[in-house]
User: Fold this.
Amino acid sequence: MGAQIEVIPSASALVIKALKEPPRDKKKVKDIKHDGDLTLNDVIEAAKIMRPRSMAKAFSGTVKEILGTCFSVGCTVDGMGPREVQAKISSGEIAIPDM
Assistant:
């Protein structure tokens, strides 16, 4: 009857997993560039997993957090830069469904 432990991976781990890159030896391969392209749906799926750990009020805020991680990892979303997608969500050009 012990306490249950649930592990939620970090946002960067979710983004890199969504890029479907081949596994690498972390001790040998450094400074890797993750220059793949994700779909907005991939980002939304990652945000759903991260939602319990997110500080954002709305789900769209969690999606923006994941987009920030995409920016730091160096990948694009639907062929656009993550900052561009964030701006379109803020302006209402891209609608994010609430959970």
Summary: The beta strands are 37-38, 76-77.
